[in-house]
Write a structure and sequence with these properties.
Order of helices and strands: EEEEHEEHHHHEEEEHEEEHH
Mean pLDDT: 90
Largest sheet: 11 strands, antiparallel
Strand content: 35-45%
Radius of gyration: 20 Å
Oligomer: single chain
Number of helices: 8
Helix content: 25-40%
Length: 296
């Protein structure tokens, strides 16, 4: 192939994402499973950009082992409605160029802010959340950054579009704990599967730090745990692996999975995240009697 992979035709699709997490932060162990669903449309394609519409249909915490996760999920859901309808221009790598319905988003924030201020008098956490989000919604760059780092963009536009396949490249982004910058080295390749139709391809991605992690990284990444664990004895493994089944004629993702792991200590300090991404046709098949019979 060895050509840049891009979205080629207009399409609409509903996607479901399952996120399974297993995080150990020294004395705190948290596991959870959550589900998100979107309605996604490519509205226009030009040489410079794609115009997209993304509607969040639901966001559900399926299970967790820690009450704190439930509290965080409730607060997250309260704010997620601010982003539940997005119309954007993105370049052919999926980087956001412009928010086209900014007026809708700011209007929702004004309404949500007023509702939260009415109940925030005796709740410092809500007050802090209002201040934090006021800074975000008053700054277009911060708002773009928030949307760009959201779950849908992490999966759908995760380093595949606009890149030569097979190919290699490097990029700066945060570690899995979101506490320090890392220069990641990515490798994209085509995988062979005789069961695919002629209009389908599978792209595999893998990433790891491009250079040896130094003491500066360890101090930045784990400083919050310095009183609980000896940072000098940590030996971090950072790995990301993805696989994407894609319709060639349109550039539409049919299904995908992504695993991201940061293991600083195998027992005391790690983050393991697994993302499973289905188009509606795959979700319906996974729920069908045919599939359930075949897997039992």
């Amino acid at each position: 192939m060895n050509e840049r992979f891009e979205i080629k035709k207009l399409f609409s699709e509903q996607y479901t994402l399952i996120i399974d997490s297993d995080i150990k932060a020294v004395n705190v162990h948290m596991t959870s499973s959550s589900q998100m669903r979107w309605d996604f449309s490519i509205l226009n394609i030009s040489e410079e950009y794609c115009e997209i519409k993304l509607i969040l249909l639901d966001h559900i915490l399926l299970e967790s082992n820690n009450p704190l996760i439930k509290e965080v999920a409730s607060l997250t859901n309260a704010f997620s409605r601010l982003y539940n309808e997005l119309q954007l221009r993105v370049d052919h790598q999926g980087k956001i160029l412009e928010i086209l319905n900014m007026h809708v988003i700011t209007s929702k924030w004004k309404q949500t802010k007023q509702e939260m201020e009415n109940i925030a008098a005796n709740n410092p956490e809500i007050k802090n959340a209002i201040i934090l989000n006021d800074n975000v919604f008053g700054n277009k760059n911060k708002l773009v950054e928030n949307i760009q780092s959201s779950e849908f963009f992490l999966l759908f536009f995760n380093k595949v579009y606009g890149k030569k396949i097979p190919g290699r490249f490097s990029e700066n982004s945060l570690n899995i704990f979101n506490s320090a910058n890392v220069n990641w080295s990515y490798h994209l390749s085509l995988a062979h599967n005789p069961l695919l139709s002629s209009d389908e391809i599978i792209i595999e991605s893998s990433a790891e730090p491009s250079i040896l992690l130094n003491i500066g990284f360890y101090n930045r990444a784990y400083i919050q745990f310095a009183n609980q664990i000896d940072i000098k004895k940590l030996d971090t493994s950072l790995i990301e692996k993805g696989i994407y089944r894609i319709e060639k004629s349109t550039g539409r993702i049919i299904e995908a999975s992504l695993s991201r792991e940061e293991i600083a200590h195998p027992e005391d300090l790690y983050a393991k995240l697994k993302y499973t991404f289905y188009s509606d046709e795959i979700l319906k098949y996974k729920m069908s009697d045919e599939y359930l019979t075949a897997t039992n």
